[in-house]
Amino acid sequence: xxxxxxxxxxxGHYIDALLNAPxxxxxxxxxxxxxxxxxxxxxxxxxxxxxxxxxxxSWPPYVPSNFCDSCGTIMPWASREAIAAKLxxxxxxxxxxxxxxxRIKEEVAALADPKESDDKRTRAGEWLKKAAPAAWxxxxxxxxxxxxxxxxxxxxxxxxx
Length: 161
What we know:
Blueprint: E1 3-9, E2 14-16, E3 40-41, E4 51-55, H1 80-92, H2 98-112, H3 118-131, H4 133-146, H5 149-154
Antiparallel strand pairs: 1-2, 1-3, 1-4
Helix pairs in contact: 1-2, 1-4, 2-3, 3-4
């Protein structure tokens, strides 16, 4: 399926999901969102690819994608659940044993739960780091977005910019 381009604020409000649709008149894309005041973007902040809008020839309710469909970058509005699901997928690619895959799900759930103690979240991150060492480097941006500053420090992730 082909898609139109979209304008979405950093808070996840879509401004226009049919940006390059030739049959629809468009207002200029605002610099900031009228709902929350966040900056409005039309391209991935990492690779510059247009943000995916509504599908051509379809008209379901539009929901902004949590990840860039070109480079996989986490979008600023991605939910904790979407980030955790991607983390499970990425880490599970390295692990064959079904029991370890189940444990990956459990440890990611603990890491992603802000109600868990930093100690438990740190232990979960340390286990994940050992269980899938080759994948760890690639998933650290996902872990970074789920973990508190204390957990990031214990896991050897850089401080917030």
